Amino acid sequence: MSSSTKRHALGIVGLGLLVAAAGSQITVTGQQSAALAIKEIGSMHVGGGNVSVTGAAMPTTAPAGRGSVPYDPNGDYEAGQMYVQYVKLAAPRAKYPLLLVHGGGLTGVTWETKPDGGPGWQMFFLKAGHDVYIGDAMERGRASWARYPEIYKGPPTMVIKKIAWETFRIGPLGSYQTDPAKRTALPGVLFPTAYFDQFAKQMVPMWGSNGPDIQKAYDALVQKICPCVIVVHSQGGNFGFNMVRHAPDKVKALVALEPSGSPDPAKVDLKPVMNVPTLVVWADFLEGYERWLEIRTNISKYEDALRAAGAVVDHVDLPKTGIKGNSHMMMMDRNSDQVAGVVQKWFEKQGLMK
Amino acid sequence: MSSSTKRHALGIVGLGLLVAAAGSQITVTGQQSAALAIKEIGSMHVGGGNVSVTGAAMPTTAPAGRGSVPYDPNGDYEAGQMYVQYVKLAAPRAKYPLLLVHGGGLTGVTWETKPDGGPGWQMFFLKAGHDVYIGDAMERGRASWARYPEIYKGPPTMVIKKIAWETFRIGPLGSYQTDPAKRTALPGVLFPTAYFDQFAKQMVPMWGSNGPDIQKAYDALVQKICPCVIVVHSQGGNFGFNMVRHAPDKVKALVALEPSGSPDPAKVDLKPVMNVPTLVVWADFLEGYERWLEIRTNISKYEDALRAAGAVVDHVDLPKTGIKGNSHMMMMDRNSDQVAGVVQKWFEKQGLMK
Fold first, then answer.
1. Do B35 and A35 make contact, defined as CB atoms within 8 angstroms?
2. Average pLDDT of span B61-84
3. How confident is the model over A158-167, as pLDDT tens digits?
4. Integer Cα distance of A168 and B179 in angstroms
5. Which one of B9, B18, B24, B107 is separated from A69 by 20 to 30 angstroms, measured CA to CA?
6. Out of A38, A156, A205, whose CB is closest to B35?
7. HSE value, Cβ hemisphere, 13 Å, CA-based, for A55
């Protein structure tokens, strides 16, 4: 048994080989591709509760294959819950599980296989040694959604492809066309534009009126699964900053990727979060988008307030570090592993790995 | 190196030990819990395409945190796609991947961790050596759903808890109460009734009018990921029988757990599916539910037609084999592994394992 093939408690061996579980010694011979040693894959719903609907009109509809019959929607529902799926390693290298929080109009799919079929951040961070939790916010994806106007206040917002193409900084304002061949992308953008329609299949309806309830479910999730480290994206930013404020003992670090909002720093006491380090990451092309520049300026004020309270806050503009071409969907861009590497390096610097 | 610790190409070693990848030899020493050797975890959307909406009214709503603004829903969407998530083993023992298809008002969560926190069929079949694919039907969960009446024909059906409690044969007809303490369960039922409301959090809206489009997405999925073996539940039954009919060369076997529907055997040619073996499984307590008895009788006619066409069809009424107490949600019942074992044994009998 050569020492080079003797491995101890590794979640993954990067080149060629397996594998192990806690407290084990493993010898592997032969040639093979890397594999992950997984303890458990699972999921749960967190938060929410019973809501009884009465007095709702009876539309005429029915389950598939049974014809059209009157359907009575009055009765009890569970509402307000969110969904989280987890992959636990046999031997994580990270001290805490990692929770990945998606942005607006999207679900946890954001972090899975990329629209172009390449591995997403879920695989990246599993391979880097993290237990990975991926949430679907209340009202999105597998979290389910509830009736309006009886439970939610009104109809959802549905993100049209033009908004995603232009707001997520894949193409310039005004460049979206229905015909993919006629769309103009930003010069040098690393989003795989040929797969934009595939990405658009991930988009789900969202309700502007549900913010407080979405937050409540995220806070319940933190109580359930943390201590943990959290990565948030876009609309997840505000939820993430609040998750930290509401449980500064449970959240060990926060990474905010282009957060689209934050609490008003003038209205919140940030002293309690002084021990939670934060990394804020911005991608490329913001200059062409007034709204994004405004958002970045607002978030910078929150960063300043965190620093004033004594917290570690690192701010990375990727282009300034030489990483150019990223869209708002940096976890789906062709160099997604490179961006994930920036985050992983920060985790290491913060002492979050064993 | 003792021979008892030398393992070859196993997806999992049940008692105590790991692990391996294809073509490898592994020696493990020390005590540890079982782990899975995973090659890849990922997901994709399959099917659907662009739909352009014009002339829709503009409601007043907005993303969280930005106040109430007019919102224009007109534009392009992707619609008609479904979602599938996969876990691929480093060294599967099964000859083909396994696709798990949920029932009405539900998503792929059906197969994950059970509402009581116990491991679900996903983990069972991974440990048994199958690559496992889990779908969310078009319109459900992470597949997303589309506007009505512009894209879907009308509003969804939402399953109230009373219907689930009584139709899924957890409690007798008329036994549901909002207060969990006041509900009456079927005597001896193995559904973990204390976790029924947790189960209800999994329920999602469904559209009776979408049947043909749901089928289309499932058929596209079969073309994408098969050859495979398919397990369907409840409403998934009809979709599964049709997946087999539409691709009898791609589907190597079908297991239908309490299928709620099938094609009309008088109207379809079943000769082409004669080489696809089918297992139909029914749980307990059907006698108290006229509708379920009627469904089982209808499905039996389809089974007879399959047999007449030359196909292998096995029909299992679990109580007749001594397995009593199962609800319609047999994959969530306390003895879910026992029921999965019946299916796994059938896979072995059909020569579907290496």
1. no
2. 77
3. 999 999 999 9
4. 46
5. B107
6. A38
7. 3
